[in-house]
């Protein structure tokens, strides 16, 4: 019995030893696992920190996102019409405009106005940017666009013709093709999402051998500069009388000449826009003259197709 008791005690001691060893190993394993988790966490944290820092650098000069390019897509709209109205090359329904705004974002473009664009080029913030422009100062723009700018957090440039505004001042009624009168331009200009641009006071026509503001064959530079300057001044004064200043000129029909560019640069315009259908790759403030724009015709399915079409043309 005493012999058995001894064996039993030995067995118990062995069991306790095994248990103790297992316990210690188990603890170690737990600690190791805990350390592993900790390492993984720390690793994840540092990876996350790396990603954040990479993203921050992407907007700085050191990492060249978008291939080290500042791509600028300028879209040119004219009139905006109701959803039950006829649309075409120069008239886009409001629901199509809304689809465009959503698509621009989906395609990865950041919407900019002139001031934001200057900041982008000055600080070499590489990436894809879009600028929305509406030419001629149609009443449909006044009526439909501000709500969508707000909804999609976007901004735009609306180029107006002085003569069209003055004519509209004398007309009481509005039709689908009406322009904004002076008061409507004044009101629209108060919207911080909108910049009013020059589209000439009285050059929006093809008359006496001149298309838009372009110098005529045989016209002397001096005479041309004088007349173009005084037309620009006329609209500048008109806009000034309603508290509007602008540094952007959108050429009627996209027509320009070296003399018009030199006049506008002397008048401290910071941006001029044509109707040449291509994407812009901008580099510094000097590259913001003669920007290309894609005409948003309702006959093109979507913005992506519009870009593809313009790129294939090149
Ligand atoms: Zn126009």
CATH topology of the largest domain: TIM Barrel
Q: Radius of gyration from the CA trace?
A: 33 Å
Low-confidence stretches: 21-62
Structural class: alpha/beta
CATH class of the largest domain: Alpha Beta
Query: Order of SSEs, N→C?
Result: HEEEHEHEHEHHEEEHEHEEEH
CATH architecture of the largest domain: Alpha-Beta Barrel
Keywords:
single chain; 314 residues; alpha/beta; 13 strands; 48% helix
What's the short story on this structure?
With 314 residues, the protein is an alpha/beta fold. The chain is 48% helix and 16% strand. It starts with a helix and ends with a helix.
Structural commentary:
The chain is an alpha/beta fold and 314 residues long. The protein folds into two domains: 1-65; 69-310, Glycoside hydrolase/deacetylase (TIM Barrel, Alpha-Beta Barrel). 48% of the residues lie in helices and 16% in strands. The strands form four sheets. Strands 1, 4, 5, 6, 7, 12 and 13 form a seven-stranded mixed β-sheet that branches. The chain has a two-stranded parallel ribbon with strand order 2-3. Strands 8-9 form a two-stranded antiparallel ribbon. Strand 4, helix 3 and strand 5 (127-136) form a beta-alpha-beta unit. The structure holds zinc ion. Zinc ion binds next to strand 5.
